[in-house]
Each structure stands twice: as C-alpha cells, then as structure tokens.
Specification:
BURP, signal
Length: about 350
Amino acid sequence: MCIVLFLVSFLVATAEGGRDAGLVTRVKETIVPYYASPSELNAYWQSVFPNKPIPSSILDHLSAPSGNKMKDMEKEHYWSVYSDRLTEGDAKIFHNWAHRIASEKLLYPETVFTAGSKINLYIDRAVALHSPYLHRDIADSIPMSTKNFTDITAMFAPVSPSMARDMWSTLSSCEHPREVAGEQKACTTSLESMKGFSALALGTGNLRAFSTSLDVPEEGISSPSQRYEVAAVRAITPRAATNTVTCHSMSFPAALFYCHAVNPTRIYEVTLKREGGASIPESRTPAMVQALAVCHVNTSGFDPTLRYWVKLGLKPGEASVCHFLTRGDVLWAPASAT
C-alpha cells in the first residue's frame, strides 16, 4: 500500500521500548506502522539471502541506543555536522558526497596494505547508525527532494536545527551528488531498495553483503600521535579487481544510504595492531582493529587537486585510492567474486 504523504496526517507514537513504537500514519482509521520491525526485516533478509548473516552495519539500525547513549548530548552527536569540526585547510571534498566532507587523512595508497606497514589510522565516524528502517511502501512514497523539505521535516517532527541542517544536506547530496566518470549512484531508503540497486549495478542478484568489524568504534578512529602496524591482510575480492557497491549511512531520521559504485575495486580485510598495545594507559584508540578497506583502482576521473596526489607525487589514474569503511557502511559484491 502506497501512502500519499501529503494527504494523510502523521502522528508520533510513544510506547515502552523507546523508538520501536516509532511513527505511525492514520488512513481511514487504520494504523499503519511507519517503521519496519526487526522481525520483518529479518524475514525479508532470509527470503533473499537464506542462511547468510545480516551485516552488523544493518543490524545496528534494528536496535536503538540504550543507557547513556540516549542522553541528550549523544542524541545531538548523531546529528552534528562533521565539517564543523574541520578547519578549511584540513578539509577537502572527496570525489563523492557519499564520503562526506572529510579530511584527506582518510585516504591511503594501496601499498600500505602490506604486513609490517605502519600508518596513522583514520576511520571516519558512523553517521546516523541507529536510524530505523522504514517500511518499503512508506519509503517509496517519500519524495526525497529539497523541494519537499518542509513536508519531510514535518513527518519527523520535532526536528532540531542541527537535524534539519543535516536532513537538507542529505537531500541535496541525493539530488546533486558530485560525480566521478562512470559512477553509478542512488539514495536508498529501505533495505529492499538498497539490495535492489546493488543487484542492478552489479548485474546479479546473487550477492554478499559485508560490514567492517565491531572493533571499529561508532565514533571512528583518529590516531595522529599513535601509529598502527598492519598485522595481516586478507583479500575479500580477487586481486584482479572486481565490481562492488558501497552504501554509506547518511544523516537522516530514518535509515538512508547513499549507494555508489566507482569500479573496479579491490576489497581487503585489514588487521591492525596499535604500537604499544594495551600498555598505553587511558588510550582512546583500540589496541587491535579489524577493518574493511576499499581501494578504487581506476582513479583517472578523480579530483586532480587533492593533496593526496601531491603527497604521492602522482596524478589521478597513476595510483589507486583506498579508504576504510565506517561502522555504518555496507559493502555489496557478487557472491561469485568473494
């Protein structure tokens, strides 16, 4: 059933258990749940990927934060604008808004993914990690456009100024993403549409989904003064490179992913060990990290003004560009390539 958003009234329902009560819409005295329940999402997953585990980056959206994470300061944290914490000189716009405004410290050459290499580890924070999934029919009925910004914010009222600012940025990026030659992209607002786009982009419905490990904190990792040694590297996809889709969780009250394919890619599972290990007192970075890294092999269409190229003394197309996945990202690959 498709709900015409502008002809119905939206209510905020509260109940024990917090967010799971969620939003509902009333149509001719029928209450239609706004959010998909965990059991419904699990049933869908098992119907399309029987006996395959759900990636943690998807599971995170099925459970609300608890305890201290529900404090007002933490709520505000989920809606803070990442670029506000970067100086102009330290921030560049990466090749696609899916990677958000981020420091170029997040980028690595593929050569560092060799056992024994030492790096300062930077992994971006996860955005809106606990935003719940909408029902597919509800999600499909939302006009994801800045032209409908007022109606969309009314659906999720009350909306704080910072939340509204992030919602506008997300809608704007969905409408006008920064493109790389040959890139395929879409903003997906349901689990079904995320899988559907990935299948279309990769030319097969026989897919595997991956997420980075729970070793990576939600707030990411920034180690300007502590170095990590690459302890082990495992190729998830063939060294010859293959096509994949990466879906980045975006700032929005409901689960919304910016999915894009900048192919070909190579995917690695990288195990890193912090120098000094557990002996470093009060360190805010984990002693061991196992994280997924994506390497974009064809970089000929990338921004030539990135300091990344200056640092390497190279030009776009002469080296791959790699970055680690956040806790909120989902990677899709053909099952035959993994």
